[in-house]
Write a structure and sequence with these properties.
With 302 residues, this protein is an alpha+beta fold. The chain has seven helices and nine strands. It has helices at residues 4-12, 54-64, 72-87, 130-171, 188-203, 214-238, 279-286, and strands at residues 17-21, 24-32, 36-42, 47-53, 96-101, 105-114, 117-127, 269-272, 275-278. Helix 2 packs across helix 3 (72-87). The longest helix is centred in the middle third of the chain and has 42 residues, at 130-171. It is elongated, with a radius of gyration of 25 Å. The protein starts with a helix and ends in a 16-residue tail after the last helix. 17% of the residues are buried.
Length: 302
């Protein structure tokens, strides 16, 4: 049976998704276990939270569905089947959702069918504590911003190296075989200015429901998994005797690549001296630098 701490840790590892209810667009994440569920909803001004166990589920199902009699696990499985498509952006037409929210409470009404009979459910959420907001949004987003900044700096460095390599080819007499492939040397200041003038205003439009793209969801999960591992390590160091009762299965596990996406490289995040860098950077930092043997220009240059 899952305890409260395990339910909370499993919820932390779930990615955020944008969901729409009439005129309201919310960020949502949920975890459905064997003995309860946890749900988080956020409109970027407030966050609401609900955690239930089998006793609450059994009682609420009696109040809302007097003609349905089933074990709490059956209702949990059905709620999971209703919420997962919604969080994946593919809600079913046979299920309707409506939302009533206020700064102090949020109720998500669900209407569907179960075994050919009407099924109703209310997710009754209260205001989430500040610590939960920090744990699920603030700290992961700060870590993500540091990781992305480190990635941008590495890419800028690679572009400058490529420009130096191309210039060396040109000075050696090489020329482009196709003029349309010619590019201007990378200037970091100009790039940053263009980013602030054009890209940044579009990225700041938070009302369009695109806060978390698929790549950002992967990065969010990588960050929260790393933070969970650090928290587990600190807990073990503070209580050495607990190591005897903990196996590697208790550590958060990174999700397996989806079918058809095996070629996509997943990057985990490591913390080095307070700055987050990608695993590829960490590997590069451990390898000695070697001089590159110059090769004869091929491909773009004749």
């Amino acid at each position: 049976m899952e305890g409260i701490e395990e339910l909370e840790s499993r919820l932390l590892l779930q990615p955020w998704a944008s969901v729409c209810f009439a005129e309201s667009t919310l960020l949502a994440k949920a975890y459905f276990g064997d003995a309860g569920y946890a749900l988080l909803l956020c409109d970027l001004s407030h966050m609401w939270y609900e955690r239930t166990d089998t006793e609450i589920i059994q009682q609420r199902s009696k109040d809302l569905n007097k003609r349905l009699t089933a074990h709490a696990s059956s209702f949990l499985n059905h709620l999971r089947s209703l919420m997962c498509p919604l969080l994946e952006g593919q809600p079913t037409s046979s299920t309707s959702f409506s939302c009533q929210l206020s700064p102090s409470a949020l109720t998500l009404h669900v209407k569907s069918e179960l075994s050919g009979m009407p099924f109703y459910w209310d997710f009754c959420c209260s205001v989430a504590p500040v610590e939960m907001i920090s744990r699920h949004l603030v700290r992961p987003l700060m870590a993500m911003s540091l990781a992305l900044q480190s990635q941008v700096q590495e890419l800028a460095s690679l572009l400058l190296q490529k420009d130096a390599e191309i210039e060396d080819f040109r000075e050696s007499g090489a020329a482009l075989s196709r003029e349309r492939l010619k590019t201007e040397p990378f200037k970091e200041e100009s790039f940053q200015q263009t980013f602030e003038d054009k890209t940044l205003p579009q990225a700041c439009c938070l009302g369009d429901g695109r806060q978390f793209t698929s790549s950002l969801k992967q990065l969010y999960m990588a960050v929260t998994q790393q933070q969970a591992r650090v928290a587990c390590k600190r807990h073990w160091e503070g209580d050495p005797e607990s190591l005897e009762h903990i196996s590697t299965q208790d550590l958060p596990i990174e999700p397996e690549p989806e079918e058809g996406k095996t070629g996509t490289q997943r990057t985990s995040v490591h913390c080095v001296q307070g700055t987050l860098v990608s695993s590829t950077q960490a590997q590069k930092a451990q390898l000695p630098m070697a001089k590159t043997k110059r090769k004869k220009a091929k491909g773009l240059f004749s």
